[in-house]
Specification:
9% strand; alpha+beta
Amino acid sequence: MTEVSKILSSRNLSDFCKDKPYKYEEVNYILYSNKEGKYSWRPLQIINPALYVSFVHLITEEENWRDIKERFKEFQADHNIICMSIPIVSTTKRSDKAEQISFWYNNVEQESLKLAMDFDYVIHTDIANCYESIYTHSIPWALHGKEEAKKEKNDKNLLGNKIDKLMQDMNYGQTNGIPQGSVLSDFIAEIVLGSIDLKLSEKIRKEIGSINYKIIRYRDDYRIFTKDKVPGERILKLLYEVLQEFNLKLNDKKTYLENEIILSAIKEDKIKYAEINKSFSTIQQELLIIYKFSKDYPNSGSLVKWLTKLHKKISKNPKRLRRKKENVEVLISILTEIMFRNPRVIPQSVGIISILLKELNIEKKIKVIDNIQNKLSSIPNIGFLEIWLQRLRYPIKQDNKFDNKLCKNVSGNHDSIWNIDWISQKELKDKITKTDFVNREELEKLSEIMQVSEISLFDIY
């Protein structure tokens, strides 16, 4: 990114292009990840460096950045609507993402518990397929106001229109959806969602008037707190109407009212995890209980937490496997089934498997990894899975040929993961294609056993 930024520092990206990026597919690299279930995949995008740098240069121009900050002040003027998802820069050794998640726990969850003192009802809801549904034309609406943006829709110098165009450049000219997976996308989403907060606040004052309420929003997730359920339902209706103006809609399956604020502030799987988590005599016994838990609470945060905790436990005392005469291949079989049914925990499960494989000879290791790969090959969009399987194979010099482009880069194929046919200038093209984004020194240091720090963003709370 730094080298691309140097090239683009004093010129527009269009000076380096023979055509418009939006005319080309796969300008960004898409990797599918799973959060909710076996067939619920979301596209995470690694944004093309040329477009990413152009975007950052645009919004950080002094005048533009000043206007954006002023707009955010307007979004946050109503203290009844609290946004807790503005991207965070870490001031500790933790990554930015770890700090963001920690902030969610320490503020959203804990603030919800505190509000039980003041309110009796809470409505939980979120926006259906938020990032995939954001209308790029709504970005200038959010920055400049809908009327002003529509009046100036042909003004190519308007900041909102420039951002709108860049979003379309990344998405084959489509006006529906923004990339997921980067802090830049989170920031753009917050511009749209902040504008929705502002409109909702105005609508509540106009149509309901004086009312005691609080709304906590974390990205597209809302918690609406009121003393009585009727005002809460009225606010929900107004939120629905505002979202419609932005071509967004609520997720019916995740919208519900609770009059038990304390319990509703904590996810059910967390409570169940706390109830049943105890010491187990063998790893196999614990894995069988985890497997049962995974069927009741698939792809849950507590499942991730439990497997991370088990990874730590085995890492600290690997001799326990021999002392307890654990059948390593049986343990791997259970873990593979957990992964198959819960793709969200692939990294945690592979981390544990890396320790278990150490107990096997090289021939058995290869056979077991092959069996895992065969078992999981029926999972759709397995690029994410291949990255973790490659992590298992690489240290034992069994780096199979994977279809995933990122895996191919690790194996030494330096073809670009982005479509850059629209760029004509050789220097910029070379910086994108020939800059190796794989740290080869770190790659060669990889041990067979994966450390918890490779997987977990931070220690378990």
